Every structure is written in C-alpha cells, then in structure tokens.
Amino acid sequence: MSSRDVVLARVRRALADVPRAAGPEETPVPRDYLRAHGDESAADTVRLLAENLADYRAVVHDIHAAGLPALLAHLLGERGSRSVVVPAGLPAEWLAECDVEVVPDAPGTTPDELDAIDSVVTGCAVAIAETGTIVLDAGPDQGRRRITLVPDHHICVVRVPEQVVASVPQALERLSPRHPLTWISGPSATSDIELDRVEGVHGPRTLEVVLMTP
C-alpha cells in the first residue's frame, strides 16, 4: 500500500459518518483543543505581545489615545517621511498633527506610485501575543493589502486591550475567511542558505507597532 493509499484511507474513515452530500457548514467540527496556554491577565497578554513583536524586530511604542497624533507626527518626522498612504476608514484625527502629504488608498493607485510613498499608517483586525503577529483583514482602517506591502515603512496601531488576544485559535474566532487576511510577524525578511538576513524583500523593511490604550 502506498503512502497515498494510507492517507486517503484515513480521510475516508474520518468522513465515514458524514453524509456524502453534506457541505462543510452542515457538519459540526469539535474544537475542544487548547485555546490558550495559561490564564494570563490582559496586562500580561499585552506585555507578551510587546516582547514577541520586539523579538521579530518590530519597533514597539506604548501611548494613550490622546497622545497618538503627536506620536505619529514624531515617528513620520523622525523617519523623514514626506508622504503617507492611509486607508479610507483611518480616523482623521490620528494624522491631525502630521506635516506630510496624505495619500488616500485608491483602487487606481499603481504599485509604482505606492513605491514612491514613504510610509503607510493603518489599524489592525487583531494582534496575537503568543506569536507576536499583527493580522489585517482589509477593514476600513486597514485598506487594501497592497498598501501595506509596497511602502517601505508601516506604522500599525493596535487598540489595547480589545484587539489583543493570547493565541491563534482566539484570533481565528474574530476573523472571517471571506476577507483577505495578511499576517505580519515583524518586518518583511528572508535568509539565504548561509542565513544572511535581508529585510524588505516582499513587504516593509520597517514595522512600527503602536499599542494604544484609551
């Protein structure tokens, strides 16, 4: 018996009690696996997120909501950004103190035009503490996927604590598979066979995550 036969036989056994015409939504799947490791407080979960983001070479900032416009203006000015692309649903007050050209996310914007823009500022859908991952789902404050993959500098604002979860299973409960999902663990990077790390290959070279509390 080949490996293929073994795998298919296991699939058939697993589906033995499922009607042949049943669709995925009609057959409940038990999800009684461990959803998180431990029972950490919200503060500890946020702290773990910050640590793991830093491990992935993201730059992490903590700020109260009232100080966010000044912080964004400082971060863009410090980098020397002259232009920033923003999703349509990004709160206008976030960039109220920024002295840069604000470019709205528009369907007609080409990759070359996005490449000429210095930075992008977005919100997020959810942030996962155990993996140090930011997930975008093309929501109003996140925009199309391309605006977070082409510009070289991405500032992502995470609303704390409501957008922070401990684990991947908890994140999946908040996400829809019908939305385009982008999972970001640190700035874009790759390594060759000699483990020489190169950043900015298929996404931003610099990722800054702002953990914003009310």
UniProtKB/TrEMBL annotation:
Q: Specify one Pfam family.
A: LUD_dom
Protein name (database record): LUD domain-containing protein
Identify the InterPro entries for this entry.
FTHF_cligase-like_sf, LUD_dom, NagB/RpiA_transferase-like
Q: Which domain of life is it from?
A: Bacteria
> Can you name the source organism?
Streptomyces olivaceiscleroticus
Domain (LUD) ranges: 103-212
